[in-house]
Amino acid sequence: MNLYDQFRHFADSYGLVALLVLFLGLCLWVFRPGAKQQNREVARSILKDEEIEGRGDDQ
After folding, report:
1. Can you give the pLDDT at residue 11?
2. pLDDT, tens digit (0-9, with 9 covering 90-100), for 7-34
3. Kindly report the CA angle at 19 between 13 and 25, in degrees rounded to 5?
4. Nearest-5° angle of CA 11, CA 19, CA 41?
5. 3-class SS at 35?
6. Under a CB-based contact definition with an 8 Å cutoff, are residues 30 and 39 in contact?
């Protein structure tokens, strides 16, 4: 069995399972009970610079 076949076998079996477990873990991490406030802060963090610049222009 050459190297390509070994990598192909790994990707078809264990790699797929590992990626599935990683995906489900990340999905569960986002929707865990204590993450609501942190997720809101992160979602609004992209707008903070614009809000600060906008306040400076108004004053």
Report:
1. 86
2. 898 888 888 899 999 999 999 999 998 8
3. 135
4. 155
5. helix
6. yes
Alpha carbon distance 48, 25 (integer Å): 29
- Give residues with Cβ within 8 angstroms of 39, minimum separation 6: 30
Whole-prediction pTM value? 0.56
Residue 10 near residue 18, CB atoms below 8 Å: no
What are the tens digits of pLDDT across the range 41-58? 888 888 877 656 666 555
From residue 21, alpha-carbon distances to 2, 37, 58 in Å are 28, 25, 49
Q: For residue 34, what is the DSSP state?
A: G
Q: Where are the alpha helices (DSSP H) in the chain?
A: 3-10, 16-30, 36-45, 48-58
